[in-house]
Amino acid sequence: MHPVVKLVAQRLALGMLLLLAASVLIFVGTQILPGDVAQSILGQSATPQSLANLRAELGLNEPAISRYFSWLFNALQGDLGKALSNGQDIATSMGSRLGNTLFLAISAAVVAVPLAILLGLIAVRYQGRWPDRVISTVTLATVSVPEFLLGYIAMFFLSVKFRVFPSLAAINDGMTFFEKLNSIALPVLVLVLVVLGHMMRMTRAAILNVMQSAYVETAELKGLRKFTIIARHALPNAIAPVVNVVMLNLAYLVVGVVVVEVVFVYPGMGQYLVDHVSKRDVPVVQACGLVFAAVYIGLNLVADVVSILANPRLRHPK
Amino acid sequence: MRIPISALIGLFFTGLYFSIAIFADFISPYGVAEIVGDAWEGPSATHWLGTDTIGRDMLSRMIYGGQTTIFVATMATLISFGLGSIFGFFAAVKGGWVDQILSRLVDLMMSIPTLISALVVLTVMPVTLPILIVVMGILDSTRVFRLSRAVAVDITVMDYVEAARLRGERQLWIIFREILPNALSPLVAEMGLRFIFAVLFISTLSFLGLGVQPPMADWGGIVKENKEGLSFGITAALYPAFAIATLAISVNLVADWVLNRTTSLKGGRG
Amino acid sequence: MKDDLAKLIDRIDAARMGRRGFIGGVAALGAATAMPRIAFAQSGTPKKGGHLKLGLGGGESSNSLDPALTLSQAPYNVMAHIGEPLVRVHPDNTLDMRVAEEVSASPDAKVWSFKIRQGITFHDGSPLTADDVLKTMQRHSDEKATSGALGIMKGIASMRAEGDLFEITLTDANADLPYLMADRHLLIQPGGGIDNPASGIMSGPYKIIVNEPGVRHTFERYAGYWDDSVGHFDTTEILIINDVTARTSALQSGQVDMANLIDPKIAALLGKAPGVTLQQTQGRGQNVFVMHVDTAPFDNVDLRLALKYAMDRQEMVDKVLRGYGSVGNDIPVNAAYPLFDDTIPQREFDLEKAAEHYKKSGHDGSPIILRTADTAFPGAVDAAALFQQSAQKAGIPLEIKREPNDGYWSEVWNKQPFCASYWGGRPTQDQMYATAYISSAEWNDTKFKNARFDELLMMARAELDQDKRKAQYREMADLVRDEGGLLLPMFNDFLDAHNDKVAGWVGNPNGDMMNDQAAIKCWQA
Predict the structure, then answer these.
(1) At what angle do helices A130-144 and A185-210 cross, to 10 degrees?
(2) Which of A23, C174, C225, C520 is the most buried (most CB within 10 A)?
């Protein structure tokens, strides 16, 4: 078997184990957090009696271990259960949230990743000259402004003042694809600005790191155009760190955009998870946790495989 | 040795911010918690940057906020880089099951949403500055680990590393003498940004009510305290944002300079 | 990680308050409740039609359509669309007869009977009967009930339905009972909602079409609704916008027509924006700090007085509420309550007295920890910072500790000896005091236990002479004010806003958004 295939198979199997471990950790975490779902549902209008009733109804009086295993047993059969707080089917409601999250993440990634790499290449091409400086400074400035502030600024100018794009990104199923794209214009803009700097700078640094290699010199002596050298010869050899940073940012786009979701009222996973963490709604937190863990483990795997494929010495180990 | 102008600018402002942070007690015109005026006063001779949402002097808040922010971010970045790069290199050099265990452990840590890990850890432990720094450092070190391992794995298969191994050099020697210098460029680039992410992370924690304790301030927190005024032309929230951005740019100008020096150290052509 | 508005506005929303309250005493009650429903003066004539968009804070993806479980703004407004209780409370604190057409009491106020309005249908077309009412009330008061209304359903000895009458027998007389029935949880459901509590099928003026908790809810006017003076828009839509800046921006850019929970910091600025009207309604919500009087060092009355004198209330109203509120006096009631004695002297900010009492308390000078969180009430961290500064001037070593929003109400409030908190109001002084100040109260968050106070409360409840009753309440107020553990710096106002497409706004002191009914009572301008 080809070593890379073997590695992927191995890692996928390990990934399953990791998911299991993640679900245990998340479960333990939710148990450590003070308060429980019954208390959150009833709030401060709870009386000891109604609390006890609700706990019994939701099965919270079972020991934690048996609750975990009954969850696990059902989850393995594909049944994620119902949310304790409102009885909605988790798979259905999370499914639509996940769809929205991926839609936003993919839209942002489609713009940001190629743009970041292109800007990185341009920065290397004109290293130390004004295009490099402008690109570096602007991307640094956008990455260092808190994302909600970027959101408010974009909202203030593009939607309150000039009404170009809507300030609410609340998409729903009744919208056409282009209506949806129009709705998410502002959050995509903000997310692109947030992730651009990181990926662009890593591309630039990693390429600079290999620019002094002998093969780059060879290429130069062959008389190739500078940009061709950077894109064709240097970039492939700088791919490992770039892919890792791209992966980190993709994971961020899926998992970490809760602030942007809140600001633009986008019905994604982040807000969904946060709401249920604060309600101590363990089955939902578990389900979301599994999805996020799978995203991370999957992206990490992709990054590792791409790094190996990009390096001939790793691709064909001695 | 000539220092380029951009690096000089970077060094100057980085130095300026750090010295303001260190000497905050002597520079600041008012106390960090002291209420000296009305809410959201505009800039004036007595309050150069105006006052904040409950009438504290904005300039003093900015100075003390800078102190907290820069201190916490610097320490957290150092911890995350120390931990992340050492373990990352170690995993890459050792390979095999050590690499597997460390890498999968990091996968696991990364896969727990930061919100949950931060909430759990910080509700169980008291929220003090040292704990805040350590928690941030550890959470962030997973990202550094991934990067440094990826870079180092590429290097470990290089001929010169193999040569060093055949020479019988010790593992530590290989890490510090062969891998570290060759992995420095991406790591330095990453460090400049990680510092900024640490600054932003503190403000996210404040958002959860887990950040620095009032009346202490941090820049992200000041942005948040004053953000409502933004859509009505009250600029109080923009000062800290501006401060973070300029600090980010100057720190990274320095990082770029270091980056250039490390890359030019390696090649034969200078 | 978000404004945890869900809990903060009204943690304990038993029957809601009204401005003048109704005149206590059983004798007066029959007269008050027999009055016909008053049409409240609204500017202009209602117009049918149109689509209304509301941007509301206080909604979560974990919200349910079960009325027993509503706890925050967005579900309150959803419920006001689709459901209806026996009675509601008008802005002037008279009863608004909804499902019940008439209410009457036995002379001793122990037996209450509600005449159920004929011709009401649920959204599935089935008629609403006294039996549905009975089953609904049973669900909320059942031994196994999980309803947020369980606390207020105590004291019911038995209930029965007969013909179009629904009758409640109490263990002890309670002249306030009809007001308890206005509770937000007690919406009438078919079959009491026992089989399917979250079906969303009720008897309100709107049917729910889309229910995506934490995202949006859409509604369509229910053609079979009985009252033509309610429900003017053809369709309405609630968008959950928890971020206050996003909410106001959406209003300014015309993406929503109404918004709730406006931040006092920007209320004045928003009011000046073109086409936007700010609606300020005086309510009875209280921003408070509570000390456990049974825990050191707060068991020392001088220390408590020192803290009370060291608080600059006016500054807090000016800076935290930006003037949208009024100064408090360390008692949980104000002039808006009936039988309130307004000659109770206002506690002034007095550093000398504070220092004097602090010295007298013999406190060892170790830090006094005040716990606070943004979720306690909007601006709670700022208010604590202001308090810390003024206390410092009196030499009191107050220290602020900010707690995570997450878990604040379950882990800090009512557990830690000194923390920030929020209280909604009650229709009567009796209820306010009974909820949190008598020795046996479950929510006695100051651990105030005073035999004389308890005795006075019981006496006042039975007292028919208004002057005597007023004097009794005065004595109780003095006890709480001088000996209790309540620091009440301010009462906050409700702040909502809408654009010029909306007409017919009449504020209701019982709750924000016209006590949740803005969408169903306003119309297209």
Answers:
(1) 130
(2) C520
Determine the pLDDT at residue C310. 95
Q: Which of C263, C254, C265, C261 is nearest to C240 (CA)?
A: C261
Calculate the dihedral angle through the C-alpha atoms of C431, C432, C437, C439, rounding to the nearest 10 degrees: 10
Q: CB-based contact (8 Å) between B53 and chain A?
A: no
Q: Which domains does chain A have, with CATH numbers?
A: 98-271 (1.10.3720.10)
Of B54, B123, B232, the CB nearest to C269: B232
C32 pLDDT more than 70: no
Q: Does residue C123 contact residue C222 with C-beta atoms inside 8 Å?
A: yes
| Tokens coding A36 | 């429980």
How far the first Cα of chain B sits from its last, in Å, is 13
Which of the residues B111, B204, B231 would you substitute to probe the A interface, choosing the one with the greatest number of A C-beta atoms within 10 Å?
A: B111
B223 is written with which tokens? 């942005």
Distance from the Cα of C495 to chain A's closest Cα (Å) equals 21
Binning pLDDT at 50, 70 and 90, where does residue B208 land? low
Residues in chain B: 270
Most confident of A49-63, A101-115, A212-226, A256-270: A101-115
Digit-coded pLDDT (tens) for C364-407: 989 999 999 888 888 899 999 999 999 999 999 999 988 877 77
CA within 13 Å, CB half, C345: 4
Nearest CB to C266 within list B54, B215, B232 = B232
d(CA A88, CA A57): 16
Q: Give the pLDDT of residue B207.
A: 64
Please report the beta strands in C86-172, taking only residues with DSSP state E, as ranges in sequence order: 87-89, 95-97, 100-105, 111-116, 156-162, 165-170
Q: What's the one-letter identity of residue B102?
A: L
pTM exceeds 0.90: no
Q: What does DSSP assign to residue A82?
A: B
Q: Kindly report the nearest CA distance between residue C403 and chain B, in angstroms.
A: 6
Distance CA(B198)–CA(B237), nearest Å, equals: 19
Dihedral, B137, B140, B141, B147 alpha carbons, nearest 10: -150
Q: For residue B215, say if its preceding peptide bond is cis, omega within 30 degrees of 0.
A: yes
Give chain B's domains with CATH numbers. 5-263 (1.10.3720.10)
Chain C residues touching chain B at CB-CB below 8 Å: 1, 244-245, 248-249, 252, 263, 265-266, 269-270, 315, 318-320, 322, 372-375, 381-382, 384-386, 388-389, 400-408
How many CA atoms lie within 13 Å of A116's alpha carbon, on the beta-carbon side? 29
Torsion of CA B145, B149, B151, B155, to 10 degrees: 150
Measured distance CA(C67)–CA(B144) in Å, rounded: 49
Is the Cβ pair B213, C384 closer than 8 Å?
no
Backbone angles phi, psi at A60, to 5 degrees: -80, -10
Contact B116 A143 (CB under 8 A): no
pLDDT digits (tens, 9 = 90+) for B143-165: 899 889 988 988 888 888 888 88
- Whether the CB-CB separation of B233 and A113 falls below 8 Å is answered with no
**Distance from C-alpha of A258 to C-alpha of B249, rounded to nearest angstrom:** 26
Instruction: Check CB contact of A263 with chain C, cutoff 8 Å.
Output: yes
pLDDT tens for each residue of C243-257: 888 899 899 988 999
- Specify the long-range contacts of residues A227-231, CB closer than 8 Å, at least 24 apart: A227/A121, A227/A125, A230/A121, A230/A124, A230/A125, A231/A121
What homologous superfamily does CATH list for C286-492? Dipeptide-binding Protein; Domain 3 (3.10.105.10)
Q: Per-residue DSSP letters for C217-257?
A: EEEEE-TT-S-TTS--SSEEEEEE--SHHHHHHHHHTTS-S
What residues does each domain of chain C span? 286-492
